[in-house]
Amino acid sequence: MASSPVIALYITICCLAFVMSKIIISFLLYRRWARKRTIIDDTLSSGRMVIFRSPATQSLSSKAFMKKTMKLSNKDIIGSGGYGTVYRLTVDENTAFAVKRLNKGNKDTDRGFERELDAMGDIKHRNIVCLHGYYVAPQFNLLIYELMPNGNLDSFLHGNCRHNSNCLARSVSWSLTVAIAGKLSKQSPLDWAARHRIAVGAARGLSYLHHDCIPHIIHRDIKSSNILLDQNMEARVSDFGLATLMHADQTHVSTVVAGTFGYLAPEYFDTGRATTKGDVYSFGVVLLELLTGKRPSDESFIEEGTKLVTWVRDVVQGQREEHAVDSCLGSNFSVEEAKAVFHVAEQCLEADPSKRPTMIKVLKMLEKNHVPSHSTIS
């Protein structure tokens, strides 16, 4: 029984240690909460928010928005890239936005933010993702975009297994442009009508940037992951972090070569001149992706020492286009329609930029090859 006091002392020490640990944890949590509250207050007092009023932002206040933004974590990330991170921000049951955060201190990031604002500030078009507002603070900048519930084209074409024994699952590459999109838990292959409609929608958005905006806008980073899909599977051009404005008296804009390998026009590497015809070339690569289901950087091309553009060129010259169409489509497509789209892509990918059509001509050619079906996913 002599051990009883020892046991009692041991239990007392354990209880005191437990209570002290709880007090310390509570204190640290309070410090963390207070620090975060201070950051929010400092950010609100030192930052500036601009909201472009629309039905989607009527109930959005700066303070409520920033409080929710400061609570974002890794589980809310829906895209990341060279210029920042994109989060899904849920305001309430019916309202959500895609928020692109760009940390300051990097000149390229700051320029990317300015370019997006310059390009997107006044744009309202059915085939271009909508910018709802922005936030400027000493530590970071935010761009508030419409959230696209169906993600991006890249994830549909190259993402999860597409219910076909010949289709291998590939990893999804989420870019900024996804940059600005929601994730789907399960994706099915796009049918032919949906692919054609996406091609037309993306062409319509690009045509608007090239021909109807004053000054004209060169996107400089057209690729499948920068084409988002809304609730109706309509295409929306996104991610204007590399966009360049071109005035009516200009034929090109001299820039540092930037963009995504596999989509860049060959002359861009030689001259450093960004032109609308460079966007046309990139769009031609996207058309080949829609047709073949292959990325321009597909491993099979690397093994064979070729690339998507030259492979398809050989296929077209041999008049074997139907054999190059994505196997996930099976026989559920029109051979004549597919050949017509291959022909449009071939023109977009002309080595000589002067021989490439303008985007307005590309749009007309695709609309002429219109598929009336309203189905979207097979």
What is the rounded Rg?
25 Å
- Which percent bin holds the helix content? 40-55%
Q: What topology, given as strand order, has the largest sheet?
A: 1-5-6-4-3-2
How far is it from the N-terminal to the C-terminal residue, by CA? Answer: 78 Å
3D structure, described in words:
With 378 residues, this protein is an alpha+beta fold. It folds into two domains: 48-146, 2-Layer Sandwich (Phosphorylase Kinase, domain 1), CATH 3.30.200; 153-368, Transferase(Phosphotransferase) domain 1 (Transferase(Phosphotransferase), domain 1, Orthogonal Bundle). Helices cover 42% and strands 15% of the residues. The protein has twelve helices and twelve strands. Strands 1-5-6-4-3-2 form a six-stranded antiparallel beta sheet. Strands 7-10 form a two-stranded antiparallel sheet. It has a two-stranded antiparallel ribbon with strand order 8-9. A hairpin with a 2-residue loop joins strand 2 and strand 3 (84-92). Helix 1 crosses helix 2 and helix 7 packs antiparallel against helix 11 (335-348).
List keywords for this structure.
single chain, 378 residues, alpha+beta, Phosphorylase Kinase, domain 1, Transferase(Phosphotransferase), domain 1, 2 domains, 6-stranded antiparallel sheet, 42% helix, disordered C terminus
Q: What's this entry about, in short?
A:
The protein is of the alpha+beta class.
Lay out the secondary structure.
Elements: H1 4-46, E1 48-51, H2 62-70, E2 77-81, E3 84-92, E4 95-103, H3 107-120, E5 131-136, E6 140-146, H4 153-158, H5 192-212, E7 216-218, E8 227-229, E9 235-237, E10 244-246, E11 253-254, H6 266-271, E12 273-274, H7 276-292, H8 299-304, H9 308-317, H10 321-324, H11 335-348, H12 359-368
Antiparallel strand pairs: 1-5, 2-3, 3-4, 4-6, 5-6, 7-10, 8-9, 11-12
